[in-house]
């Protein structure tokens, strides 16, 4: 059917039939008519009405517990974003957020399937965001937070640019599920993971917001907790790319870094991404070098190969001013 044949009268007739199906609670017919109405708007090149119709249909079918037909429309919705050449925007991200939230945790597989398609669409149109658009991840992170699914929320916030929201979630998570002495561990993991996914913005902004929002951290740098000082210094030296300074920093705060075994892999990755360090040689956990020993040995080796002086382990180097 050509666009010249499809006009306002056709749209009106389909809408009238749809309203009758809704009145009669004929959910199968309503599902088919929503798809038909969407196709007609596409033929008229009215993409905004097309996407709004799909959102309306998903919302209606979910409200009537018609999960299978709602899932089908959500797949049409997700795939049409690329097929119809939609440009990523906050309006569409709001639609995705609303649909994702209304599916709820009980339909996690269905909504994740839709989300994966949407993320790939944002990567297609915004290749500068290889993990997906930050605003989309912000919206999904917030939904997971509202469901108290902190693990999934953290995954998406790490790929967003909403440091303030991420920090507020972390403060809530620590105060409700963490121990008092772990206040610095919660933010350390996030900063290091953020850097490992090349999201320096989220690492920096979340650290700054967390240290201001958390009631147990009521001071400015230098902090009472050594691990917080390590993170503060680390974030300041990233742009310098100076391997010597990175080595000294890891050496000086080694006693704080051994509190979490996962930090070694994070620091190894950060060294590769920001300081041109080769991946460290993996050795058994009982290696005589001890915790972080392999990492520091690798850093020192790379430093020697680059012709930079190797800092003495018995006499620490002076770190250059970081201000």
Automatic annotation (TrEMBL):
UniProt key word Cytoplasm: yes
Pfam families: GET4
Main location: cytoplasm
Alphabetic keyword roster: Cytoplasm, Transport
Chain residue ranges for the region called Disordered: 303-323
Coiled-coil residue spans: none
Subcellular location: Cytoplasm, Cytosol
Biological process according to GO: protein insertion into ER membrane
Any one GO CC term of the record: BAT3 complex
Family: Belongs to the GET4 family.
UniProt xrefs under PANTHER family: GOLGI TO ER TRAFFIC PROTEIN 4 HOMOLOG
Protein name: Uncharacterized protein
């Amino acid at each position: 059917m050509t666009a010249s044949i499809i006009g306002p009268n056709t749209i009106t007739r389909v809408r009238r039939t749809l309203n009758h199906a809704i009145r009669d609670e004929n959910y199968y017919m309503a599902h088919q008519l929503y798809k038909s109405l969407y196709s007609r708007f596409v033929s008229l090149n009215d993409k905004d009405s097309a996407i709004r119709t799909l959102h309306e249909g998903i919302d209606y079918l979910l409200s009537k517990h018609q999960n299978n037909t709602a899932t089908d429309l959500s797949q049409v919705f997700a795939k049409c974003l690329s097929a119809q050449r939609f440009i990523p925007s906050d309006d569409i991200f709001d639609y995705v957020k609303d649909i994702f939230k209304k599916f709820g945790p009980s339909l996690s597989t269905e909504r994740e399937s839709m989300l994966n398609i949407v993320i790939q669409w944002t990567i297609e149109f915004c290749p500068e965001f290889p993990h997906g658009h930050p605003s989309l991840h912000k919206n999904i992170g917030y939904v997971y937070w509202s469901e108290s699914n902190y693990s999934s929320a953290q995954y998406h916030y790490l790929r967003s640019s909403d440091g303030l929201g991420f920090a507020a979630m972390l403060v809530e998570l620590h105060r409700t599920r963490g121990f008092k002495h772990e206040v610095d561990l919660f933010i350390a993991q996030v900063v290091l993971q953020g850097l490992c996914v090349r999201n320096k913005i989220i690492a920096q902004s979340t650290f700054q917001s967390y240290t201001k929002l958390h009631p147990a951290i009521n001071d400015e740098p230098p902090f009472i907790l050594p691990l917080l000082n390590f993170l503060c210094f680390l974030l300041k030296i990233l742009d310098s790319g100076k391997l010597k300074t990175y080595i000294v920093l890891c050496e000086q705060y080694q006693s704080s870094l051994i509190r979490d075994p996962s930090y070694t892999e994070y620091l190894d990755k950060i060294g590769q991404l920001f300081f041109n360090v080769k991946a460290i040689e993996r050795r058994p956990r009982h290696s005589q070098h001890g915790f972080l020993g392999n990492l520091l040995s690798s850093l020192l080796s790379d430093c020697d190969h680059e012709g930079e002086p190797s800092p003495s382990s018995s006499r620490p180097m002076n770190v250059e001013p970081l201000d």
